[in-house]
Amino acid sequence: MNALRSGTWLAAAIAALTQPVTAAVSTPTNALVSTVSASHQFVACASDRLLPSALCAYAERVKREWLRRMDVADNWRDPVVLLVQNRQPGQSDAPPVSMAVLQTDEHLEYRIRCLVPPPIDREELLPTMVDALCSEWASREQATVPGKPYIVPDIPLWLVEGLAASIAGRYEPLLSVSKRSVTGGSSQQARDLLEAKTLPAGSADGQLFQANAWIFTEGLLGLHNGSRKMRSFLSELGAQKVASNAFWKVYHGDFPNTTALEKWWSLELVGRAAMSVAQNLSVEETERDLDAILVTRLGPTNGRRGMPGETDVAIADLWRYAGVPWLRDLLKLKIDRIGALRGVAHPLYLAVLDEYMEALAWLQRGSVTRFHRALSRAQAAQAVADKRSHGITAYLDQAERIYAPEPISNAFRGYFQTFDQLEKLERERHSSISDYLDKFDH
Fold first, then answer.
1. Buried b (16+ CB within 10 A) or exposed e, 59-74
2. Cβ contacts of residue 402 below 8 Å, gap of 6+?
3. How far apart are CA 35 and CA 17, in angstroms?
């Protein structure tokens, strides 16, 4: 039934969108071309015959990521229209991407308008699409009465920017911005996030708000039944129209008062900002640095009795020099190097490094027997870590070949590159010979 209603609406919407444009132009190349997405929720219209398909594919991918975070099935009620129009002389100051909500007899229509030039920017389009999806969910259970204007709730800025950043997948830059804010003592309060209406002016303040909005949104989704609570918040927002009232009604059990919210936010902010994924070494880099530490190059040195000639000694053979004066300093230096590596090593090798440091500590104390036991445990742990890391790498390589995951920002660019290439091939196909042969094909 929903598909029948959506099909009827889409046919009427496409006719309404294309009729004024086609009547105002004299050549058919300027007529709007329309494409309906796979779920039938999106219809894209543009004068470029390939652009609507790219927009629909991108919209479906954004919605798929949005549904996954909300942990809900795709059971939409109101459609979304993406309308691409040429920028007119009087629209020089108009935003490149904007959204308006129109009321029909049975539906609300979320119309996203893209003015070109400049080309459509995903940085502008993604938050607007997230705003439309959140608005559609918030109003889904609210009745629309013909002739009575429906009050559309404003989706809070922190949720729009937070979900958009989460879907875009730009985690490392966001963590870097948030970490600089925390270490610099200029953390943003949760109250400021909840009350923000517009994105702060300036690139630095805007990036900080987006980073904090992402952390705040991810933190709420990470609560117990976080996705369900987020859906309840949107539904409550649709009923009450006031974001602050809806927020406290849904999250009162988690945050009894503003003090509890700020305490939770401070811990969440510090914990997320302390993440340093980009600083950790990869498996290969950890293996390489560890192998370099485990081999000791010895050489003749004046004043150090018993130092052998220049040679490379494996860690398993260091016990042979137990009791000589220079070994104690060498072991201390090696333990310090392993400790420094542990601070940036891949997590799979943390236990391995601990075992090696324990073995060297026993040798430093003069216990050769315990050194051999600890060294055997370290080598066994290293073999397990190597096997596990190589297995994970092989599995991920296979999964990547099968599923070919990519950031949604790359997908947006890839859609249009593919369609541009198809259009170029179509133009180049026409020649006097091909046109002559086409007559026989027909």
1. beebbebbbebbeeee
2. none
3. 12
Q: How far apart are CA 18 and CA 10, in angstroms?
A: 12
Q: Encode burial over 137-165: b for 16+ CB neighbours within 10 A, e otherwise.
A: bbbeebebeeeeeeebbebbbbbbbbbbb
Summarised one tens digit per residue, pLDDT across range 79-115 is 999 999 998 888 888 999 999 999 987 789 999 999 9
Fold of the domain built from segment(s) 2-139: Glutaredoxin (3.40.30)
Please confirm whether the linkage preceding 118 is cis (ω < 30° from 0).
yes
Q: Sketch the domain layout of the chain as residue ranges.
A: 2-139, 157-279, 283-402, 409-441
Which amino acid appears at position 196 of this protein?
A
Contact 34, 107 (CB under 8 A): no
Q: What is the pLDDT of residues 10-55, one digit of tens each?
A: 444 444 444 433 333 333 345 788 999 999 999 999 988 888 999 9
User: CA-CA distance, 370 to 221, in Å (whole number)?
Assistant: 49
Whether residue 117 is preceded by a cis peptide bond, meaning omega within 30 degrees of 0, is yes
Beta-sheet pairing, 42-46 with 108-116: unpaired
Report the chain's terminal Cα–Cα distance, integer Å. Answer: 40
**Coil, strand or helix: which one is 178?**
helix
DSSP letters of 67-103?
HHHHT------S-EEEEEEEPPGGGTTS-SEEEEEEE
Please tell me whether the overall predicted TM-score, pTM, comes out greater than 0.85 for this model: no
Beta carbons of 235 and 70 less than 8 angstroms apart: no
**Residues belonging to the chain:** 442
DSSP, collapsed to helix, strand or coil, labels residue 52 as: helix
